[in-house]
Amino acid sequence: MASNQGFKPLPQPTAPASSSHRPVPNAQRTPQQLRTPSNRKTIYDRNLNRTRTAELSRASFAYLFSEMVSYAQKRVTGIQDLERRLNEQGYPLGLRLLPLLLYREPPRTSLRPNRILPLLQFIHGPLWRSLFGRTADAIEHSSTAANEYMISDNEPLVNQYISVPKEMNQLNCAAYVAGIIEGVCDGCGLKAGVSAHNGGTEMWPGKTVFLIRFDEGVVEREGLLEGKK
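Request: output the structure for the sequence above.
Response:
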């Protein structure tokens, strides 16, 4: 057993005779909580209609979206893989935007679209206005495939601040918007796959076409509903 010999006990620290400092009580550890403003209200207490006309700074959007593209670009195998990741980032936003936009619509038009044409009109109008402050430029129906529709945007905002290198000239970062559209379609129960394609013309070199392919079951159901009229 070790001996205590050779060691002197240390004197206990004592407070100075005259000191202006007060002893600090032991701080009690509390579980970490969300910070709330002084009025005790959070973002969930705001009126959903209060900020529907508010605009976001384009500089803020450009920075945020470029960071999203940079994040999606990590560990991708090619252009299609990058567009798929951008699509997956936009999909949850579409699912959440749908009930919010329906809530903001007038009561007579706040019903969830359950037919293809009303859904496309909803995307072309309220959805596009909410995202970009204007409607989309065109809606078209494919003449070769009954389940394919196209929504065109001559100047997509998401592509205006992205510099695409020559070796990736087929990349279209509007795949993020395609994911939003796909989320809205699935939220309405009209399952579809949506992709973004470069459709530039001499007048509109940055034109993007969003190709919406509805599932065969959706088209069959649409045909049955048309037959009941």
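The longest helix spans residues 79-104.
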